Structure formats: structure tokens, C-alpha cells
Amino acid sequence: MIFYEISEEDKELIKLALSKLETNYDREKYNHTVGAAVRCKNGRIYSGVDCNGIHGSCAEYITIGIAVSAGERDFDTIVAVHRDHPNKLISPCGNCRQMLIEYCPDIKVILNDNENNVVKVGIKDLLPFACL
Ligand SMILES: [Zn+2]
Fold first, then answer.
1. Measuring CA to CA, which residue among 118, 130, 114 is closest to residue 3?
2. How far is the CA of 92 from the centre of ligand 1 (A)?
3. How does DSSP assign 42-81, residue by residue?
4. Ligand 1 (single-atom ion) residues, CB below 5 Å
5. I want to staple 92 with a disulfide (CB 3.0 to 4.6 A). Which of 38, 66, 96, 106 is the partner?
6. Exposed, middle or buried: residue 29 (CB in 10 Å: 0-12, 13-18, 19+)?
């Protein structure tokens, strides 16, 4: 597994995801509890929050959907955040890992390792033997 350096841009990406979460967090219904931000290879950044419902959608899904709807196709790095998680980072669920590897097989993900160190790794390392 390759570990990429956490850059200043990555720290800004985390801050933006947290800002999007704080702006939209629904304290009454405990809704919109996860924020995400993605940086495209062209440097543009998009962010979003999860939407709950019978078939709710994770923040990563919403964020990639926003970026794709804006015409983006090449993604560099994504991060998802939650207020109550170590380092405020949340690991993408299995469904999001599959979506990410299909949309952007070279994307890197910022998350905690098993000792809660902040790391950045490629999506292929988060979903070995993926169905593509
Ligand atoms: Zn997910």
C-alpha cells in the first residue's frame, strides 16, 4: 500500500468538508451528519453532505454527483468528515468504495488508519480485488 503525504491542499480539503458539514448539520433531526469534499485534477473543489431517507445517499456519493453534474470527470482526492470520529475523519463505506473505484480508479482518499493516524491512500488499496 502506498501512503501519500498529506499536503496543505489536503488540509484545506478537510477544512472545507468540515465547513460544509457545519453549515448543513441538522441538529433537530440528526440529519446531514457527514460532509465530504473532492478535489479534481484541475484543482476545482466540490463539497456536499449526506442525505438520509429510505434509500439515503452518503456524502461521498452526493459530492461526486455534484462534481460530475458540473462536468468534472478527473478526480484527485476525496475526504469525508463526521463530528464524532477521530480526527473528524470517516472512512468511506463499501458502497462508496465501489462507486469511487468505478468513477475514479486513481482517486486518493484521506482517512484514519487503524491507529487513527491521518493517511492518504489510493482507492484501489481500499477495495482490493474490486469488481470493475
Ligand atoms: Zn458511503
1. 118
2. 5
3. TS-EEEEE-B-STT-B-HHHHHHHHHHHTT---EEEEEEE
4. 58, 93, 96
5. 96
6. exposed
Interval 90-119 mean pLDDT: 97
Task: Report the SS3 class of residue 90.
Answer: coil
For the segment 110-123, the average pLDDT, to the nearest whole number, is 98
| Amino acid sitting at position 55 | H
Which domains, from first to last, does the chain contain? 8-126 (3.40.140.10)
Q: Which of 28, 60, 72, 115 is catalytic?
A: 60
Model pLDDT, residue 9 = 98
Known catalytic residue: 8? no
Output the CA 127–ligand 1 centroid distance in Å: 13
- Whole-structure pTM value: 0.96
Distance of alpha carbon 16 from alpha carbon 19, whole angstroms: 5
Nearest one of 54, 87, 82, 51 to 66, comparing CA atoms: 51
Q: Look at the block and give the residue holding cell 491521518.
A: 118
Mind giving me the DSSP string for 93-104? PHHHHHHHHHH-
